[in-house]
Design goal:
two-stranded antiparallel ribbon; MetI-like fold; 2 strands; 14 helices; mainly alpha
């Protein structure tokens, strides 16, 4: 009997070792598409090309970003983060009730409703943004709605409102899906236990349902906030040539219009690194807040 158990454990271990080989393609893609580009961005941001084969270490591009004369770049970073925050908040305020509503429907209708939420993701982002542009331009449905609320201008193009609306429309599925996944897999015996203990409906939601969906909320915020803060297509199209002082547009302009010899790549890389670190810090702080809230409950 003991010999059979040893053989079983040996075969199981070999099977696990075999499955580990399936990670190799994933690791290759990670190195090729994530780590190497990230290394090059950091390398460009801290070096200066003196000759064709000689690079000198420098932090001048980081100093230049925070220089008082170029405070417009710092402003662009804060503006991008603020717009991304508002868009993420809008996605949460719309996405959570929508995910909750879908999770409460009959199981055979949930798939259809989730399909309707995800259908826009099948369409190219550029086409979606152009469609939003037609809705907020002169005579558009969204513009007419804002005019009913007292908005006096004849177009929303070139405003932060237009960019936020488009970000919410584009990113909403990324907020709904992770929240819906947790809501649909929630153990309903916990809700019944809370109800048996005399908890009211709002107490069940705040003390049971909401805390259990915090991981989904954090995932949704990460999926929405990160691309919103560095979006290029949406500010370019809906900025209408006026409102282009977003950090993604600045980075794109430096890489597309400049070259490595004049330091444009290095400056753009430094701005990209600063933006990445800023967004990562915000996500890190949010993760700490979520963990503390979970521990309290």
């Amino acid at each position: 009997m003991q010999h059979e158990l040893i053989n079983f454990e040996t075969k199981k271990r070999k099977r696990i070792d075999t499955f580990q080989y399936f990670n190799i393609p994933y690791l290759i893609l990670m190195v090729a598409l994530v780590f190497i580009p990230l290394f090059l961005i950091i390398w460009y941001s801290i070096t200066y090309q003196q000759t064709e084969r000689m690079y000198l270490f420098t932090l001048n591009y980081y100093r230049k970003f925070f220089n008082a004369a170029n405070f417009s770049f710092v402003y662009a970073l804060f503006k991008s983060i603020f717009v991304a925050f508002i868009a993420t908040l809008g996605c949460f305020l719309i996405g959570y009730p929508l995910a909750y509503f879908i999770s409460k429907r009959n199981i055979k209708y949930q798939g259809i409703l989730i399909l309707l939420v995800t259908v826009p993701m099948w369409i190219n982002m550029l086409i979606r943004t152009l469609a939003v542009k037609s809705l907020i331009a002169e005579g558009g449905i969204i513009l007419k709605f804002f005019q009913m609320l007292g908005y006096s201008k004849t177009t929303l193009l070139g405003t932060n409102i237009a960019i936020i609306i488009s970000l919410i429309i584009d990113m909403l599925p990324f907020m709904v899906l992770p929240i819906y996944t947790l809501l649909s897999k929630m153990d309903h015996s916990l809700i019944e236990a809370a109800r048996d203990l005399g908890a009211k409906e709002h107490q069940i939601f705040t003390r049971v349902v909401f805390p259990l969906t915090l991981p989904g909320i954090f995932s949704g915020i990460s999926l929405v906030f990160l691309p919103s803060a560095t979006s290029i297509v949406i500010p370019n199209i809906l900025g209408n040539g006026i409102n282009n002082n977003f950090i993604g547009y600045i980075i794109e302009h430096l890489f597309m219009k400049g070259n490595i010899e004049n330091g444009a790549y290095s400056y753009g890389s430094a701005i990209a690194v600063i933006t990445m670190l800023s967004v990562m810090f915000i996500i890190f702080v949010l993760r700490k807040v979520v963990n503390r809230y979970e521990q309290q409950d």
